[in-house]
Automatic annotation (TrEMBL):
Predominant location: cytoplasm
GO MF term list: pyrroline-5-carboxylate reductase activity
Pathway: Amino-acid biosynthesis; L-proline biosynthesis; L-proline from L-glutamate 5-semialdehyde: step 1/1
Binding sites annotated in the UniProt record for NADPH: N57
Protein known as: Pyrroline-5-carboxylate reductase
Source organism (scientific name): Mucilaginibacter myungsuensis
Family recorded in the similarity comment: Belongs to the pyrroline-5-carboxylate reductase family.
Reaction catalysis annotation: L-proline + NADP(+) = (S)-1-pyrroline-5-carboxylate + NADPH + 2 H(+); L-proline + NAD(+) = (S)-1-pyrroline-5-carboxylate + NADH + 2 H(+)
One GO cellular component term: cytoplasm
Keywords on record: Amino-acid biosynthesis, Cytoplasm, NADP, Oxidoreductase, Proline biosynthesis
Source taxon at top rank: Bacteria
Broad EC category: oxidoreductase
EC number: 1.5.1.2
Length: 270
């Protein structure tokens, strides 16, 4: 069990999922985790479970060692101003899950030489299947390992170069929506060819899960697995070619690129 108290500032979906994952994995007890939110009545159930809940961010920081910044980019500067008097660079490690904000951005706004690690999970964190990308510029290897161990409790983590973090936001965080839309489209196609909507959705979702697991469990390549299900003059290749003629791959690639561009300017626009 980790003995360092943790404060999660901005307890929305990501923050709460991380807290629950840490407790479920036995790394933390609820009483070691402070959850902050402007409307703390929304955290009443968590309080009953033993978590510390408060609307006072500065107080939560003062009583913790690890600080998770889990708010929107446009809310960050105000939050940093609020907690700056409570931050001790020799004591605190900051973990930022804020899109489009560099470690240097955080340090410069605080005016403090504090260690910052960025983490970009996705909403599958709620079921322990997040793909989390982790990066830093000056934090120690020990702190990188610590952050990785925290997010490994709620999925799979990978360390990347910090300049790729906005790209990670598009591919992994926004990507959840892209793949969900693909599954939704497949289920609508299933309904059009005769299945009831709820059956079509279940069939499409399980098929997508199976496709992903083929790649992850077999360390295979998509085209290798596609070749196994396409035969000459068959129905699979006919469907694939029709999708490509209508821009399926191109639309996905362009969507990811557009999301990455947007992610990179959210903080700058705030």
């Amino acid at each position: 069990m980790n003995t360092q108290a943790i404060a999660i500032l901005g307890s929305g979906n990501i923050g709460l999922s991380l807290a629950k994952g840490l407790v479920k994995a036995g790394i933390y007890q609820p009483e070691q985790i402070a959850l902050t939110r402007r409307n703390i009545s929304a955290l009443s159930i968590l309080k009953e479970q033993g978590y510390i809940t408060t609307s006072n961010n500065a107080e939560a920081v003062a009583n913790a060692t690890i600080i998770v910044l889990a708010i929107l980019p446009q809310q960050l500067n105000k939050l940093l101003d609020e907690i700056k008097p409570s931050i001790d660079p020799s004591k605190h490690l900051l973990i930022s899950v804020v899109s489009g904000v560099s470690c240097q951005d955080v340090r410069e706004h605080l005016g403090l030489d504090v260690q910052v690690v960025r983490a970009m999970p996705n909403t599958a964190i709620a079921i322990g299947h997040s793909m989390t990308c982790i990066a830093t510029d000056t934090a120690s290897d020990a702190n990188i390992s610590l952050v990785t161990s925290l997010f490994d409790t709620v999925g799979v983590s990978i360390r990347i170069n910090e300049e790729l973090m906005t790209s990670a936001t598009a591919l992994c965080a926004c990507g959840i929506a892209f793949f969900l839309r693909s599954i939704r489209a497949a289920s609508q196609g299933g309904t059009e060819i005769g299945f009831h909507a709820h059956d079509a959705l279940k069939m499409a979702a399980q098929t997508a899960k199976g496709a992903a697991d083929l790649l992850l469990q077999l360390a295979s390549h998509p085209e290798q697995e596609i070749d196994k299900v396409t035969s000459p003059k068959g129905c699979t290749i006919a469907g694939l070619n029709e999708m490509e003629h209508n821009g399926f791959s191109s639309a996905m690639i362009k969507g990811i690129k557009t999301s990455a561009e947007k992610a990179g300017i959210l903080y700058k626009q705030s």
